[in-house]
Amino acid sequence: TDLQPGVSICRSVPPSVAPRNAWKSAGGENMNPSAPSYPMASLYVGDLHQDVTEAMLYEKFSPAGAILSIRVCRDMITRRSLGYAYVNFQQPADAERALDTMNFDVIKGRPVRIMWSQRDPSLRKSGVGNIFIKNLDKSIDNKALYDTFSAFGNILSCKVVCDENGSKGYGFVHFETQEAAERAIEKMNGMLLNDRKVFVGRFKSRKEREAELGARAKEFTNVYIKNFGEDMDDDKLKDVFSKYGTAMSIRVMTDENGKSRGFGFVSFERHEDAQRAVDEMNGKELNGKLIYVGRAQKKVERQTELKRKFEQMKQDRMTRYQGVNLYVKNLDDGLDDEHLRKEFSPFGTITSAKVMMDGGRSKGFGFVCFSSPEEATKAVTEMNGRIVATKPLYVALAQRKEERQAHLTNQYMQRMASVRAVPNPVINPYQPAPPSGYFMAAIPQVGWVSLGLSKKILNVEFKIKIHIRMQKRCIRILSVRQAALSVAHEMRRRCKCRCILMLLLAYPFEPTRCGADTLFIQNIADKENN
Question: What domain of life does the UniProt record list for this protein's source (predicted)?
Fold first, then answer.
């Protein structure tokens, strides 16, 4: 079905989506509630160079059709690009055309990845129709992977995972339907791509993978042995471990000279035999050395377990030092660890005191850790602001990087909210003059400039004050020159008289500009007198 004459739905667009959205836009109901919902006129553009701007994307995508909006997503604090953007077209057919003709085009040296915008994270992360491909050749990029798997069905997204060195050898393809994903797995798993045999399987979430690893750990049969000498070989290792059960294979890893590298593997027939070998041999002495015996793990498993242990140790350390570790900055360059400990020792038992150094020179800050939160609190109260050597110290409870970033983000959001909450005053420079004897009330606010006009007509004094909102040394509503002109016009309308103009200044305002504007106002007054 064509969305407009001469433009057909391309293969990358879910065919079930177009008629459903067209029906809904005409006031109908969703005839296919089980199908995923994709905003037909909105595109996700990923893998962007950090220097790509909205203007560049507009220039790139505008030939495809009328564009409603373009937004490059940026970090809230630094305003640096996050590497992706959203392009919203007026017509779904224009978005189709852009997706069909511009996907993987190069912008600022990078091929961009375009797909239909799917804002619902539950649908993106459901895993339905998503497959995982590994052992990819380095030369296979997003476009090559897309071209290879597009024969099996409509592709919603396709990505080869890369780092600074290029492809990491694996990627993902997300199909519109689970049937298309299963066809791709059936046909492509074990096939050669650029002379490399690839694995293609169903995408599994982190939780599923961890559950599988846990189950595999409970039923292992392969044992890893390390820290034995160079004289160990396969036969000697078999003699040591054969008493625990039938061994399917035994291997001592050797170098290019045939010497033992100090580790090897024994694969048992039964899990119970492998478990007994680990329980009895781990930590035992073999040829004068204490050996390690444990479940053999893949590299990914070892890295995952090491990461988990590291995070656990990090969390335990943070919990142990919560409320007792102090951050001290603005230290004198001559202050060392011992001097820092001496300054803080009157407030309690110090477990550690460290001045951070860079090439033997102080970086100007350090840490002091007490044995109890009460001692740390007392030290903060007494030492914060105290001058040590030549500088006043800043002392506070140490925070993790994540806590500091969250605190700074919260401060920034509060500051932005307060700025937005202050209404800008609306001043009419041509408002009629107040009646005789009337004084216009001044708004008491720091950072405002008051321009006062004093004049005498038949011993009757009039004063007009015009208030100008100031922010960061910039006049936002009305410049001083505009104010002077407004007053001059009003004076000419009421009567000719001798003018006395007085500029009352409040910070922040540039003195150099004040002098120029005062002279300008005096010139106007002279003209009016004449």
Answer: Eukaryota
* Per-residue tokens: 272: 């119970």
Confidence of residue 301 (pLDDT cuts 50, 70, 90): confident
Domain span at residue 90 reads: 2-121
Among the candidates 203, 235, 257, a domain finishes at 203
Task: Indicate whether 108 and 138 sit together in one domain.
Answer: no
Alpha helices in 334-439 (DSSP H): 337-344, 373-383, 401-421
The one-letter code for the residue type at 159 is K
Query: Across residues 494-509, what is the average pLDDT?
Result: 40
- Give residue 489's pLDDT band: very low, low, confident or very high (50, 70, 90): low
What CATH number should be reported for the domain holding residue 243? Answer: 3.30.70.330
Residue holding tokens 């007494």? 382
* 514-525 tens-digit pLDDT: 444 444 444 554
The position carrying tokens 């099996």 is 152
Q: Is residue 242 situated within a structural domain?
A: yes
**HSE-up of residue 349 (Cα within 13 Å, Cβ side):** 3
Instruction: Report how far residue 489's alpha carbon sits from residue 521's, in angstroms, rounded to the nearest whole number.
Output: 12
- The residue out of 93, 121, 149 marking a domain boundary is 121
Whether residues 17 and 97 share a domain: the answer is: yes
Q: Which residues of 299-312 are buried (b: 16+ CB within 10 A; e: fewer)?
A: eeeeebeeeeeeee
Q: Give the pair of three-digit tokens for residue 66.
A: 């009328």
Which ranges of 321-383 would DSSP assign to H, the alpha helix?
A: 337-344, 373-383
Greater pLDDT, 487 or 326: 326
Residues 88 and 181 both lie in one domain: no
